[in-house]
Amino acid sequence: LAKMLPLFRFGLGGRMGNGRQIWSWISLHDEVAAIVHLLTADVRGPHNLTAPAPVTNREFTASLAKAV
Fold this sequence. Notes:
The chain is 43% helix and 6% strand. It is mainly alpha-helical.
């Protein structure tokens, strides 16, 4: 995100390709909490850490452009 913000602030940011690519983002707070849980809980095997509602590249870039 840090690398994308300057482009969006100058009005140069945009979607990649057709914008239908899914972005499974997660906040830093949620990722740290999930890692702490996985380190302390009795769990086994691989786990994916993502937000509950992934967005498309088109949705993400539109929201980022609106926010900046």
